[in-house]
Design a protein that fits this description.
The complex is a heterodimer of chains A (about 625) and B (about 150). Chain A is an alpha/beta fold. Chain A is about 40% helix and about 15% strand. Chain A has 23 helices and 19 strands. In chain A, the strands form 6 sheets. Chain A has a 5-stranded mixed β-sheet with strand order 12-11-15-13-14. The longest helix of chain A has 18 residues. In chain A, about 55% of the residues are buried. With about 150 residues, chain B is of the alpha+beta class. Helices cover about 45% and strands about 10% of the residues of chain B. Classes of the chains: A alpha/beta (about 625), B alpha+beta (about 150). The interface between A and B is large, with 56 and 46 residues.
Chain lengths: ~625, ~150
């Protein structure tokens, strides 16, 4: 890679690499995103490599491991360009057939294409798959196209064009103005106007300022930021350089959680490339502007996703939040004015400047502009990453893109916003998804996790799960959060184990109100949301646990009874072998019986029974 | 104490107090825990009180003051994994290894931990051994996976 000395040099270099590439050349794009990686995408890519060698296709065919292709449910995904053939559930064993039939023979391998879960209709090309129709990918646009480890790939698709425009044709004020006019709001959760935050920071006097990228994606059920950091790291870097220029900062930090080892690797690599290439460092492209980025790794603390705690962590301290004001824009990292934005926010910036703020503002709703990436997971057919214009309804996301609920079961709720969000019931399925609408029904946008639940999920258990998560993760600095969570968890444990009392519901509501008004940071202030929304929309379920000592969804173990249906039992003894406490016994070759006094209700007998003989109620 | 080994980590940093966490991360990565004597040297070198070093070392989940096993086993208990049986998966792994989460087997081969979310929610329930993910885990796959790492 050459060191780029000037703008003209960059243009010339881009022209050169573009000239070397033939858009008609055969490309194999193997998804190595968060969904496909665990399913063996490395092995699939390896199998392609081997086959290409065997068939003498090297040099003729380009093989790339790319970022997330979106439809994780059907991984490992392989996209063939320029045909746009999308293969799914590809294993290394399928690779010789793909090479033989499609690459050499020019025909489609029918058994590897998308099939609709209901109608059975197939779709060969990416654009025909319902999951992709109705999406508007801006942030995810390049993910199935570029090799995230190649700066050349990013340049070919127009990368660092915005940087050139900003450094040479726009003043910092003009950049801020554009971001402000685009209406971009922070994608990390709170939804503060990004342009306003930048302006506030620029106005604070001071020579030393910082920009930070918050990549501490800790919300369980959310992996949008992971996919962007792993799949398009240079977009984040470009956004941060633009932000640095706008507010007058010369140093940026990317704070990424260590649970994402691949994201750490890709970002570190991308920063090194940008530095070597001359896009980071002193006097970038001879513009006179200096900017560099350091990678800071999280160490496994959820609270560090909160901005003041994150700053404390970069400074080398424990991740305890600080009271605001002063806001980080006034007094942030090392006491200096700091702009801190989430991964998705930064990744939006280059395209906003490039295409113009009006173009971005034309997408979305009145107060929520642009698109939002959601990780659609749980009880839904097409789990994966979707990016839709703000204002798309929950029904469209879950039933049209998501393909509905598997197994013909009924939709029960969707949980948005991570542990600080809420559970939204069926009656709000037509709710347009934007910052304000979600807040009106008691939830939040959060970072974009969307967990779909069907009738097999118990809402009391879900509330207990989030409270127990937050109890573990509360830093313990302020009393309402630390003690409030402890008490909520105790009560919810009681309810889910059959010890619930009528007065528990009012007591929980009281604790929730206190926590919301008296906690120090966002974690405690919003921690009550899962409890409040489930109490509001699923109160009957709480009452069933408390009054009837029953869990209608058959989840809360202490409230269940396991029995064996003598008619269905084949005496195979699989359950007897699995039972950890020896509660199952019976005469040889006859139906077995569970001793209720010994049974610990672990449910393993139910899991291993192949004859559906173990009944739960 | 292996002075050279520690020095090879410390020399990569300029010695500011904000280097504390990255240094502890490097020590944790290499030693699989934070040995007492090494922490004393780190405190002196960065000119921060030893109490602060301990405060940081005990706050973050990644750090451990007791030695960890050769293989780090992390069972995801994120929301989706929870709904899809992550807890049962954890119990099964726990009973196979004979240790509770947070502990290390007596032969120092495995350490078992839970994690808030690994971000592979579409393939829940998920667990990770060292840097390798295992997707859509079921209880009957547990012993097969563990066997791959047993000596």
């Amino acid at each position: 890679m050459p060191k780029i000395e000037s703008v003209d040099h960059l243009t010339e270099y881009r022209r050169q690499i573009r000239a070397q590439r033939d858009p008609k050349q055969q490309q194999i794009l193997v998804c190595s995103g968060p969904g496909c990686l665990p399913l063996g995408s490395t092995e699939v890519a390896g199998a392609f490599q081997e086959q290409m060698q065997e068939k003498g296709l090297q040099g003729k065919v380009i093989l790339k491991s790319t970022g997330c292709h979106g439809l994780c449910a059907h991984g490992v995904r392989v996209l063939l360009r320029p045909q746009e053939i999308a293969y799914q559930k590809v294993t290394p064993e399928d690779v010789p057939e793909i090479v033989e039939t499609t690459l050499i023979g020019g025909k489609v391998v029918e058994r590897l294409v998308y099939q609709d879960p209901d109608s059975g209709q197939t779709a060969v090309h990416k654009s025909e798959i319902p999951f992709y129709q109705g999406q508007k990918p801006l942030v995810l646009r390049k993910l199935d196209e570029i090799d995230p480890e190649s700066l050349d790939d990013y340049l070919v698709v127009g990368g660092y064009r915005t940087l050139r425009k900003v450094l040479f044709k726009m003043s910092p004020e003009e950049v801020i103005d554009a971001v402000e006019r685009s209406g971009l709001r922070g994608r990390g959760g709170a939804g503060f106007l990004t342009g306003r935050k930048w302006r506030l920071c620029r106005q604070v006097p001071g020579e030393v300022k910082f920009v930070i990228c918050n990549g501490d994606e800790g919300d369980p059920g959310a992996f949008m930021d992971r996919a962007v950091m792993e799949g398009d790291p240079h977009a984040i870097i470009e956004g941060m350089i633009v932000g640095g220029y706008a507010i007058g900062a010369h140093q940026g930090y990317i704070y990424v959680r260590h649970e994402y080892p691949l994201a750490v690797k890709r970002l570190t690599q991308a920063v090194a490339q940008a530095r070597e290439f001359g896009l980071l460092g002193n006097n970038i492209l001879r513009s006179g502007f200096d900017f560099d980025i350091k990678i800071s790794q999280g160490s496994g603390a959820f609270v560090c996703g909160e901005e003041t705690a994150l700053i404390a962590s970069i400074e080398g301290n424990i991740g305890e939040p600080m009271p605001r004001p002063p806001y980080p824009a006034q007094k942030g990292l090392f006491g200096m004015p700091t702009v801190i934005n989430n991964v998705e926010t930064w990744a939006n910036v280059p395209e906003i400047i490039n295409m113009g703020p009006e173009w971005f503002a034309a997408l979305g709703t009145e107060k929520s502009k642009g698109t939002k990436v959601f990780s659609l997971v749980g009880a839904v057919n097409h789990t994966g990453l979707v990016e839709v214009p703000m204002g798309t309804t929950l029904r469209q996301i879950i039933f049209e893109l998501g393909g509905g609920i598997p197994g013909g079961r009924e939709f029960k709720a969707v949980q948005t916003g991570g542990p600080s969000g809420g559970c939204i019931p069926k009656q709000f399925l037509d709710l347009p998804v934007d910052y304000d609408s979600l807040q009106e029904v008691g939830s939040i946008m959060g970072s974009g996790g969307m967990i779909v639940m069907d009738t097999t999920s118990c809402m009391v258990d879900v509330a207990r799960y989030f409270i127990s998560f937050l109890f573990e993760e509360s830093c313990g600095k302020c009393t309402p959060c630390r003690e409030g969570l402890r008490q909520l968890l105790n009560i919810l444990n009681d309810i889910t184990s059959g010890e619930g009392k009528e007065e528990h519901i009012t007591l929980m509501e009281e604790i929730c109100t206190t926590m919301a008004s008296a906690s120090l940071c966002g974690l405690g202030q919003s921690a009550a949301n899962p409890v409040l929304t489930t109490l509001k929309y699923f109160r009957a379920e709480y009452e069933a646990h408390i009054r009837d000592k029953k869990c209608p969804a058959l989840v809360c173990r202490p409230l269940l009874t396991y029995t064996i249906d003598p008619e269905a039992c084949t005496a195979c003894l699989a359950c007897v072998r699995e039972c950890p406490v020896g509660a199952i016994s019976g005469p040889k070759k006859e139906a077995q019986h569970i001793d209720q006094d010994i049974c610990i209700k672990c449910g393993r007998c139910h899991d291993v029974c192949q004859f559906d003989a173990v009944k739960v109620e | 104490m292996d002075v050279e080994r520690l020095e090879s980590i410390l020399t990569q940093y300029e010695g500011y107090p904000q280097d504390l966490i990255p240094i502890l991360q490097d020590i944790q990565d290499q030693y699989h825990y934070l040995p007492k004597d090494e922490l004393k040297v780190v405190a002196q070198r960065l000119n921060v009180p030893l109490t602060k070093v301990y405060s940081v070392a005990t706050f973050y989940k990644m750090f451990s003051l007791i030695p960890k096993g050769r293989h780090q086993l992390r069972v995801c208990l994120g929301t989706t994994c929870h709904l899809k049986g992550g807890q049962r998966l954890l119990e099964s792994v726990s009973s196979h290894l004979g240790i509770e989460p947070g502990y290390t087997t007596a032969d120092m081969q495995f350490s078992l931990e839970t994690v808030g979310c690994l971000g592979s929610c579409a393939q829940a329930p998920v667990m990770m051994v060292d840097d390798k993910y295992y997707a859509r885990m079921t209880i009957d796959k547990v012993s097969k996976v563990l066997k791959l790492y047993k000596e």
